[in-house]
Amino acid sequence: MNATKPQANNTAHGNSAQPHPGSADSITRATQSFRPGQPQRQGDFRVMRRLLSIVAPLSGFLALAAFLGVLGHIAATAIGTTGAYAVARAYADPAAPLAAAITAMICLAVLRGVLRYGEQMCNHYVAFRLLALIRSRVFGALRRQGPAAVDGKGAGDFISLITSDIELLEVFYAHTISPVCIAVVYGVVACVFLGSIDPAFAILAVCAYLAVGFVLPLVIARMGRSAGSAIRGQHGSMASFVLDSLRALGETIQYDRGRDLLERLDAKSQHLTQSEERLQRSQARGQALTSVVIAVFDLAMLAMVCFAYSAGGVDVAGALMAFVTFVGSFGPVSALASLGGSLHNTLAAGRRVLAVLQAAPATPVVTGRKPVEFDGASMQNVTFGYTPDALPVLRDVSLTVPEGSVTAITGPSGVGKSTTLRLLMRFWDPQRGTVSVSGRDIRDINTADLRRVEAFVAQDTQLFHDTVRANLLIAKPDATDEELKRACRQANIHDTIMALPHGYDSQVGELGDTLSAGEKQRLGLARAFLHGADLLLLDEPTSNLDALNEAQILRSLAQDQERSSHTVVLVSHRPSTTRIADTVLRMDGGAIIDALGAPAGATGNGATGATGERSTHPEGAQACTLGRG
């Protein structure tokens, strides 16, 4: 087993006056304040452009929806225009037949209903297909971004983003894109018709449509933008708080903190209610302003029509048809005005979704490189911090892990032990130094190859609300029953599974709540055994196990390592666990300060040593207790 440690002066970084850079608090603060590649806050128009770019695969249906919408609004307006023409004709000749006009109005009304149905069907088909596409892309983006995207962020916030935020985009795709197209095309048609009666009418219509359909939406949007953004953030915060509260209900009852919890919930609810009230008030003001502006333009058109009629510029039929057409033409543009208020929530949700889709992964996926076969791993002069401006978690760390060895890493909490394993998995890339597998920089290895040769067991095993079998098959979907049972026997969990009501087909419950912490941890180990990786990275693999189960797990690890020459790197505070290691590395202050189990002389920076025997000397147990503060 080879190990390298820095010179003694590296320990000077562990200043007791400051918290450990790798402590849980510092990591949480860092990951909450930093998202790799997260874009800055985007303006409304930029958000809409980005959302529009997703529509391309369904642009044909969207164009059909707009076409049907234009025809539908023309039919609706034509009902009033035809009626106005019939009234004018009856005024000029009381004996004139009206049957044709009435029949036309009935046909137009039926046609309007059919066209409206077709428009809405196309709009919602586009919207719901796109929501499914966006949801798939969000999951894909989170997968690519890896743990860096979710560490330190509440699960409830992600649930809010993946469910309600994406659902809100339906307003944009079903009730925004085609209405804008309809308003533009229909406005042109209406202006042409009014201009054919009197050019002055067309000029007034252009001014009215621009005011109601363009200026008012901008004004209304500005009135409620801050409230809309606040609401989406508060919804995410509320979801996280409620989810955490439900999971910690036992502790809340145990320590009688129910009143405090309710007070915090009430405060969050009040803040959310206040934001929603502000948004509702801004929307109400926007609707009132829209109604006033439309009424002003209606009066202006009435005055203009009366003036044109009195001046002899138009006859009764032209005057009535122009006024009725103008008054009935505000439907499409007034819908745009209402969007200025209703889109606040939608654009805020879109901004959150796009932040995930646009975020650059902390470790980009690598493909097209030469396949790799595992023959050891190493870290050379690695320095790493979770944010560029934070204190480094690891400082100039170097170590070598030969193939077939067992390495244990021990030391106080928060000194970078778990971070070392995560860098070997390439969840992050170091700011300085190199992490290598099989002599190649880990950044130059296909991501699929890296996942094939490595298996990582975290301190907390994550289980899906599914069967035991399904949770195990994540590691190897094509595994046989015999392989499943062999892996579970290695993890000393097979008998426990068989005692469940349905054996391997038993449900584990949400987050594996039907199992104890130790049983979940052993299932996590069984996953790693089933995966069959060459390098096992185990983070506190026996922390939740009793002495009997720990002994069985360690015996399985030793037998598996001897039988298949698997390489193991484990983090543990337990002397009994680290005793199986060839070499025990002790960390403090983000650096390796001691290496036991290697020959004498492996003490300088860059020095290495090797041994082919287990570290069973009593000093091995002593080494694991040093620095445990």
From TrEMBL:
<keyword id="KW-0547">Nucleotide-binding</keyword>
<feature type="transmembrane region" description="Helical">
    <location>
        <begin position="316"/>
        <end position="337"/>
    </location>
</feature>
<dbReference type="InterPro" id="IPR003593">
    <property type="entry name" value="AAA+_ATPase"/>
</dbReference>
<dbReference type="InterPro" id="IPR011527">
    <property type="entry name" value="ABC1_TM_dom"/>
</dbReference>
<keyword id="KW-0813">Transport</keyword>
<feature type="region of interest" description="Disordered">
    <location>
        <begin position="604"/>
        <end position="629"/>
    </location>
</feature>
<dbReference type="InterPro" id="IPR017871">
    <property type="entry name" value="ABC_transporter-like_CS"/>
</dbReference>
<dbReference type="GO" id="GO:0015421">
    <property type="term" value="F:ABC-type oligopeptide transporter activity"/>
</dbReference>
<dbReference type="Pfam" id="PF00005">
    <property type="entry name" value="ABC_tran"/>
</dbReference>
<feature type="compositionally biased region" description="Polar residues">
    <location>
        <begin position="1"/>
        <end position="18"/>
    </location>
</feature>
<feature type="transmembrane region" description="Helical">
    <location>
        <begin position="288"/>
        <end position="310"/>
    </location>
</feature>
<dbReference type="GO" id="GO:0045454">
    <property type="term" value="P:cell redox homeostasis"/>
</dbReference>
<dbReference type="InterPro" id="IPR036640">
    <property type="entry name" value="ABC1_TM_sf"/>
</dbReference>
<dbReference type="GO" id="GO:0005886">
    <property type="term" value="C:plasma membrane"/>
</dbReference>
<comment type="similarity">
    <text>Belongs to the ABC transporter superfamily. Lipid exporter (TC 3.A.1.106) family.</text>
</comment>
<feature type="transmembrane region" description="Helical">
    <location>
        <begin position="95"/>
        <end position="115"/>
    </location>
</feature>
<dbReference type="GO" id="GO:0034775">
    <property type="term" value="P:glutathione transmembrane transport"/>
</dbReference>
<feature type="transmembrane region" description="Helical">
    <location>
        <begin position="51"/>
        <end position="75"/>
    </location>
</feature>
<dbReference type="InterPro" id="IPR027417">
    <property type="entry name" value="P-loop_NTPase"/>
</dbReference>
<dbReference type="GO" id="GO:0005524">
    <property type="term" value="F:ATP binding"/>
</dbReference>
<keyword id="KW-0472">Membrane</keyword>
<dbReference type="InterPro" id="IPR014223">
    <property type="entry name" value="ABC_CydC/D"/>
</dbReference>
<keyword id="KW-0812">Transmembrane</keyword>
<protein>
    <submittedName>
        <fullName>Thiol reductant ABC exporter CydC subunit</fullName>
    </submittedName>
</protein>
<feature type="transmembrane region" description="Helical">
    <location>
        <begin position="201"/>
        <end position="221"/>
    </location>
</feature>
<keyword id="KW-1003">Cell membrane</keyword>
<dbReference type="InterPro" id="IPR003439">
    <property type="entry name" value="ABC_transporter-like_ATP-bd"/>
</dbReference>
<feature type="compositionally biased region" description="Polar residues">
    <location>
        <begin position="25"/>
        <end position="41"/>
    </location>
</feature>
<feature type="region of interest" description="Disordered">
    <location>
        <begin position="1"/>
        <end position="41"/>
    </location>
</feature>
<keyword id="KW-0067">ATP-binding</keyword>
<feature type="domain" description="ABC transmembrane type-1">
    <location>
        <begin position="67"/>
        <end position="345"/>
    </location>
</feature>
<dbReference type="GO" id="GO:0016887">
    <property type="term" value="F:ATP hydrolysis activity"/>
</dbReference>
<feature type="transmembrane region" description="Helical">
    <location>
        <begin position="171"/>
        <end position="195"/>
    </location>
</feature>
<keyword id="KW-1133">Transmembrane helix</keyword>
<dbReference type="Pfam" id="PF00664">
    <property type="entry name" value="ABC_membrane"/>
</dbReference>
<feature type="domain" description="ABC transporter">
    <location>
        <begin position="377"/>
        <end position="614"/>
    </location>
</feature>
<dbReference type="InterPro" id="IPR039421">
    <property type="entry name" value="Type_1_exporter"/>
</dbReference>
